[in-house]
Amino acid sequence: MSKVEKEPHHLDIAEGEHPPGYLSWIVWGLGAAFYLSGFFQRVAPAVMTDYLMADFQMGAAALGNLSAYYFYSYVAIQIPTGILADAWGPRKLLTAGASVAALGAFLFAAAPNLLLANMGRLLIGASVGVAWVALLKLSMHWFPPHRFAMTSGLALCCGLLGAVSAGVPLRMLIDHFTWRPVMMASAAVSVAIAVSLWIVVRDDPTEKGYNGFIAPGSETDHSLSSLLSGLLKVFTYGNTWIVAIAPSGIAGSILAFAGLWGIPFLTTHYGLAPAKSAALTSLLLIAWGLGGPVAGAVSDRMGRRKPIYIVGAFTASTCWYLILFVRNLPLWLLTLLILIVGATSGVMVLSFAFAKESVPPSLSGTVSGVTNMGVMIGPMTLQPAMGWLLDQHWNGVIESGVRIYDLGAYRSAFMLMVAWSLLSGILICFSRETHCKQMNRGA
User: Which end of the chain has less neighbouring CB within 10 Å, N or C?
Assistant: First the structure.
């Protein structure tokens, strides 16, 4: 029995009719809601560092590790995600991901000790790590090909919205209700998303009785043998190594600051209220999100990747140095520098185009996955490493159960951000310019 016959209420659909726009947007929107929640969970620890350190009686190293557990599993799940997306389909993968995210958020919120809190973050990272690939598959199946770039851009905007919601709004809720009830509520939201995904979403319009946009058998092979073969091949191209490592320093610095250490630094050393500090880190993320499309447009217009990337990386590292090592910056200048860092750090999105143009078209999907893993290695490494350095330079001061780190400790830790973002620019200097064209056309 065909899929159309299984759903008789669609039998009257005219042959050749594609799904109505509202239905495509509802299906896609539920996947985007899960992706948004993933960004929210990624950044959430930044606005509750004082609560977490007091509740679990931990220092900066343990806090950095707690936040990084999200990235440990997120990076690891990227390898099998392509296979799972094909084997299960986006509906099952997104529903399973949202369900595990709910379990992880519940475990994190209810954790009586640091071990269970870490396990909660680990589950959250692994579950939301599947969202991007599954959402792209929904875009391919539920929209015509010429809409793919637009829906991809909107997906990134949804992620940015999730990150911003984990700034000032989350801090205000936490100050009113404390962090555990708020994170418990986020677990309930994930449950609602999982249920909605299972009820509404289908892998392809044909399951609703409509014509699909993807020809059967036309999708990329994500089998294990194909994946392993592709991984070996992409690393034979020199640019792969460079464009996989370079964005880790840029994205790592942004997410280490906005995602964990920026708010306590701004609160302690600039005397800003936590909500105002959260607003500045949200501005950083917004500028980062807007800077990417601008960098892409300028690069495409120039027909060059390297100069835009190099200027952005060196400008970001310079501004990081000024923010972290120049004393008593006026608030307007601090805000301006944060905006410049965010905007210029947007050049890291060129890594994906750079990578795709540096390998044969048949390896474009694999090299994108490798590049995405490289991006996330930055925050995965920087957050705990900076926490360890903060603890090494801690002078023993505790207020309300929370360790207070002096400016010298922060400078020691933040030097990692400056050095790694500087390294990103240096690495790109050794890359081979693609001139925005496919360099290797062979298989």
Answer: N
Average pLDDT of every residue of the chain: 87
Task: Report pLDDT for 420.
Answer: 93
Q: What is this structure's pTM? A: 0.81
For the chain, give the number of residues.
443
Q: Give the separation between CA 21 and CA 26, rounded to whole angstroms.
A: 9
Nearest to 68 by CA among 131, 110, 117, 132: 117
DSSP 219-280: SPP--HHHHHHHHHHHTTSHHHHHHHHHHHHHHHHHHHIIIIIHHHHHHHHS---HHHHHHH
User: What distance in Å separates the CA atoms of residue 35 and residue 259, rounded to the nearest whole number?
Assistant: 17
| Displacement of CA 395 from its chain's centroid (Å) | 34
CA 281 to the chain's CA centroid: 15
pLDDT at 215: 63
Domains annotated for the chain, with CATH where assigned, are 1-6+18-220 (1.20.1250.20), 223-443 (1.20.1250.20)
Cβ(253)–Cβ(420) under 8 Å? yes
Contact (Cβ atoms closer than 8 angstroms) between residue 353 and residue 436:
yes
